[in-house]
Design brief:
The protein is an alpha/beta fold and 503 residues long. 29% of the residues lie in helices and 25% in strands. The protein has 14 helices and 26 strands. Strands 2-1-10-9-11-12-13-14-15 form a nine-stranded mixed beta sheet, sandwiched between helices. It has a four-stranded parallel beta sheet with strand order 4-3-5-6. It starts with a helix and ends in a 9-residue tail after the last strand.
């Protein structure tokens, strides 16, 4: 459980820095003391063991304090994706049965507009210093003892419409992910991991915060990712590693004009094909450690460790899991053959427990004792995994999963669209971009899309490309030939080039 591990870190590394944020160094002892006092405030505010509480916070120590304080009192943490639409927020509140919201004062309006039922159960702070001042005179609370396999977090998908699904994870899933990744990267207490990706994502939670919990290393938190100043931030904070998605690496290559002297000895994440990988190492001087995983698998399954690095691969399977490539009949494929990547644990608690309140969906993913990821890959003779994209039609845009059906559904409600199909198209920076192919009504104009999509889809799910056609290509059975829609010909409009339409 988190409280026990935090107490161990205080005993071993109490006076060492745990959090570095905007010039402020916070030791393990100071951080855990704040967590225990914040837990007292939560208890006074009516949060009890077993409650599910929304955490609506950006990147700062506030997120860390509240996440750990919720676990200190035995409550489940449900982080809010800051790109979620009002409909998605309302759906989360209802689906998880959320009883309160904690986090940043800046999120009050967007949360309460979507979920007014939480108005009387808000505990929000202007910043992490205000939180510390609020709890300074409260007595530290003794942590609630919970099973390491009990529900710890519910991490919801980004929710391109109002129906996100929540992956239920235990403390052990987080701690095991940090423990195994720390071993793979040979992280020591002397390391410092720079976190610029949103803390509500599994990536920084497991690859950064949990690695720190397991090793006593420190983390430096940036409010957001700014590629032009990233290496200056890395040098200023003394970071030795950072986490990424492929988009981060692409933007660093594109936007970095000069690389200052730094101490970075690794970056870790997913989404670095071989060409990008080599360029980052050659031009930026940072060794890449590619991994494969997702929220449901406790963050990651395979990784290129310090001892097992093979450029272009996602590395080897971590010791506490099994991972294979399956054929359509769920038979394990031999080395070299592409199939659906499937995972199962060797020990309890290291992958998710299922999707909250969605038993049918959960069981559909766990066929024949394997969790089916929906991704394609193959293993080589030495056990290195190679990723080949999605087995289903999800679009992976800049680290966010976007379901084409969700975008289809919203666009189909446009009064001047007769028919629409949405596909992903390759993009060097974002991984994939979203293209909508539209059969228009007589009054349709592309200029109407921005206003229509506002509040219906989060902006990362808006199409970048739009093509207007007379009819969608279809098979004799009236199935749309999606493969024919992915070309970016001269008739395709790039909305990024149009004023007022965000990318």
């Amino acid at each position: 459980m988190f409280p026990r591990t935090l107490s161990e870190r205080v005993a071993q590394h109490g006076e060492r820095t745990f959090l570095h944020f905007e010039g402020d160094d916070i030791t393990w002892a100071e951080a855990v003391d704040t967590v225990a006092r914040t837990a007292s405030l939560l208890r006074q505010s009516g949060v009890t063991p077993g409650d599910r509480v929304m955490l609506a916070a950006g990147n700062s120590p506030t997120f860390i304090y509240l996440w750990f304080a919720l676990r200190w009192v035995g409550a489940t943490c449900v982080p809010l994706h800051v790109g979620a639409t009002p409909a998605a927020v309302a759906s989360m509140v209802k689906d998880a049965g959320l009883s309160a919201v904690v986090g940043d004062e800046g999120h009050r309006g967007r949360v309460l507009d979507a979920a007014p039922s939480l108005a009387s159960r808000c505990l929000l702070f202007t910043d992490h210093e205000a939180l510390r001042a609020k709890v300074a005179d409260l007595p530290p609370l003794e942590p609630v003892e919970t099973s390491p396999y009990a529900e710890c977090n519910i991490l919801y998908t980004s929710g391109t419409t109002g129906a996100p699904k929540g992956a239920v994870l235990s403390s052990e899933a987080f701690l095991a992910g940090g423990r195994e990744l720390a071993a793979a990267l040979e992280v020591t207490p002397e390391d410092r991991i720079l976190l610029a990706l949103p803390l509500f994502h599994t990536n920084p939670q497991v690859y950064g915060v949990m690695v720190a919990l397991q090793t006593g290393c420190s983390i430096a938190i940036l409010r957001d990712f700014k590629p032009r100043g990233f290496f200056a931030d890395a040098a200023r904070t003394g970071a030795t590693g950072f986490t990424y998605v492929g988009t981060v690496l692409s933007l660093l290559l594109a936007k970095t004009e000069s690389v200052p002297q730094h101490q970075l000895r690794f970056c870790v994440g997913g989404g670095a094909p071989e060409g990008l990988w080599r360029a980052v190492e050659t031009e930026l001087g940072v060794p890449v450690h590619e991994l494969y995983g997702m929220t449901e698998t406790g963050g990651w399954v395979t990784a290129t460790s310090t001892k097992h690095r093979r450029i272009g691969s996602c590395g080897v399977v971590r010791p506490d899991m099994e991972c294979v490539a399956l054929d359509p009949d769920d038979r394990v494929l031999p080395a070299g053959q592409i199939g659906q990547i499937a995972v199962r644990p060797k020990v309890p608690g290291v992958i998710f427990d299922g999707y909250h309140a969605r038993a049918e969906l959960t069981w559909s993913k766990f066929r024949n004792a394997w969790f089916h990821t929906g991704d394609l890959g193959h293993f080589d003779e030495d056990g290195y995994l190679y990723f080949h994209g999605r087995a289903d039609d999800l679009i992976r845009r800049g680290g966010e999963n976007v379901a084409p059906l969700d975008v289809d559904t919203v666009l189909s409600e446009h009064p001047d669209i007769v028919e629409v199909a949405v596909v992903g198209v390759p993009d060097e920076v974002m991984g994939e971009e979203i293209k909508a192919v539209i059969v228009p009504g007589p009054a349709f104009t592309i200029d109407t899309l921005e206003g229509f999509l506002q509040d219906r889809l989060p902006r990362f799910a808006w199409p970048r490309y739009v093509e207007v056609v007379h009819a969608l290509p279809k098979t004799p059975t009236q199935k749309i030939r999606l493969g024919e829609l992915r070309a970016l010909g001269s008739d395709v409009v790039d909305l990024r080039s149009r004023p007022g339409v965000p990318s």
